[in-house]
Amino acid sequence: MSRGIAMFLPAWNEAENLPVVVGQAVTYLSSRGEPFVVLIIDDGSSDNTAQVAATLKAANPGYVEVIQHSSNRGYGAALRTGFREGLRTGFDWVGFCDADGQFDPSDIGKLVDTAEATHSDIALGYRKDRADSLGRCLMGRAWRSLSHAVLGYHAIDVDCGFKAFRRDALLNIERQLISNHATISPEILVRADHAGLTIAEVGLDHHPRSFGKQSGADFHVVFASLIGLITVRHNVGPEPGTERKAA
Questions:
Q1: What is the pLDDT of residues 215-232, one digit of tens each?
Q2: What is the pLDDT of residues 4-25, one digit of tens each?
Q3: Tell me, what's the pLDDT at 151?
Q4: For the chain, N or C: smaller number of CB within 10 Å?
Q5: Burial class (CB within 10 angstroms; exposed 0-12, middle 13-18, buried 19+) of 243
Q6: pLDDT tens figures, 64-117
Q7: What is the CA radius of gyration of the chain?
Q8: Cα distance between residue 62 and residue 35, in whole Å
Q9: Do residues 51 and 13 touch, judged by C-beta distance below 8 A?
Q10: What span, in angstroms and rounded, lies between the C-alpha atoms of 30 and 34?
């Protein structure tokens, strides 16, 4: 294990957003003065995400890497690939930020620094003011209530696409993760609970999406996520959550 941060960006059809997000991530991580890598996880995009990612890698040799799925496998599958590749770096922190431009990648610092200050294993971001449509916010609340009822975890914002993990903590749960779609977020929490990991929650700014479209409301994604909840419930069962520390 070596000091440093592996930050990965799950991306599906985010060609227009990637240059800004990657640029912000590289600029901030460079300023910390410790080793880092930014991993772009291209989940079988149908736009020119692959070409944009390749250009960003060439422009940032040694700091940006690209991992591609040959076909679209889902958000959970992209996260699982990112976790695996992040652990391979040997850095002591692995974090991820959605590549849609709705978060400031420099907030990885808030997550890591808060976790270190509170001696927590995992830092979960939560959106202080969610910058999405009313319909999407209502769907998010319904999903949060349902997934909490089925899996029994506790979190302010389970689906916030910004989290950071100590390497040793992630090693405890990474190989157990099975979800390919939205169920990955509550699954991470219930497996962390079962492993006895400690979690800090950190409020983050959330911004409107400038380019591209969200896919979480697509019927096949919703259906697969519901099936995923049942699968994870059967696999691990619910367990009372550990106490959370909001920061």
A1: 555 656 677 777 777 777
A2: 999 999 999 999 999 999 999 9
A3: 75
A4: N
A5: exposed
A6: 999 999 999 999 999 999 999 999 999 999 999 999 999 999 999 999 999 999
A7: 17
A8: 10
A9: no
A10: 7
Query: Are 189 and 158 spatial neighbours (Cβ–Cβ below 8 Å)?
Result: yes
User: Do 136 and 127 form a contact (C-beta atoms < 8 A)?
Assistant: no
Pairwise CA distance, residues 232 & 150, whole Å: 9
In the sheet with 122-127, reading across from the earlier edge strand, the strands are 64-69, 36-43, 2-11, 91-97, 162-166, 122-127, 199-204, 244-246
Phi/psi of residue 218, each to 5°?
-60, 140
* pLDDT tens profile 131-172: 666 666 666 677 677 766 667 777 888 889 999 999 999 999
pLDDT for 215: 56
Cα–Cα distance for residue pair 44/128, rounded to 1 Å:
31
Residues 6+ apart with CB under 8 A from 182: 75, 76, 143, 159, 216, 221, 225, 228
Structure tokens at 124: 């979960």
Residue 40: CB atoms within 10 Å:
27
Report the alpha-carbon distance of residue 86 to residue 82 in Å, rounded. Answer: 6
Write the Ramachandran bin of 135: left for phi over 0, alpha for psi from -120 to 50, otherwise beta: alpha
- Calculate mean pLDDT across residues 182-201: 93
Q: For 170, what's the count of Cα atoms within 13 Å in the CB-facing half-sphere?
A: 26
